[in-house]
Structure formats: structure tokens, C-alpha cells
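Q: Hi! First time doing this. I have a protein sequence and I read that you can turn it into a structure. Is that right? Here it is:
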Amino acid sequence: MYCEYIPVSPLPAPCIRASNDNKEKCPETEKTTVRIGILLKQGPYNHQASDTAYKFAEAAIRKGHTVEAVFLYNDGVINATRLMDPPRDDRNIAARWSELNNRHGVEILACIAASKRRGISEDIMIKGSAICGLGALTELAVRCDRLLTFGD
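A: Yes, that's right. Below is the predicted 3D structure, encoded as C-alpha cells:
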């Protein structure tokens, strides 16, 4: 009996054992840190994508991975405006993204074309965010091990 490790990605490979119904466990693989990029395409409060992307980013960072940046596209750019003023008993999604940048250095990048279409300019953006072109999304995809999309 032997353990055969089949690497298919930068993530730890699953351990596969050839055996006759013997379910012995293989040794643990070393922990791998994954560089993650997030593409968020939905606005806050009308779709779960913003909340899910934020919770995913927090969980990934807690597990020791690196979230390089969040790229906001289409209605996702609304997540980075200081104009939202939710009731006290509701979450402030823009403040969450700003805090993620402040605590963990996660870049918050908004697409310039999507921002202009929605009347969003640098002066109403949250602290720690920037407006940039689609080239920044391409660079994010190239430098990260994984690019996850949240939203339709």
C-alpha cells in the first residue's frame, strides 16, 4: 500500500491510497497559503453577494490565507461609497470593507466605468478604496492563486 499525492493546484492535494477496502488515512499535507482575489458584482443590501464575499474574506484570512484585493464591478461599486447610512440595528457594509482594508491591507478596487455609470467618484469612496480600470482586475487574476466571483 502506498500514498500517491496528485498535485493539481497550489492548494494541498488530496491524499489517494490504493488499497483493497482498507481505509487507512494518509499523513497530512503541509499547510499552503493561498493568495485570493475577490470579484464582487452585486450591490449591498439587495443581494447576499456582498455579505458572503465579506464573510469569505474574513474566514480566509483567519485560516492564514491572503486576500490580495476585492475588485468591485457593475453594481458592486456601490459597496465602496460613503453615502449609505443604514439603521443602527443593521450592518454597515461599506464600513466592513473599509475595516477589512484597514486591518488586513486588502485593496478595495472599484471599476472606473461602472463607477462613472453610477455617479460614483473618488470623493464619495470609503477610506482605503480606489477607482481603477479593468486592467487592475487582470493583474489581480494573474497575481492570485484563486479569483472568486460573488454575484450574478
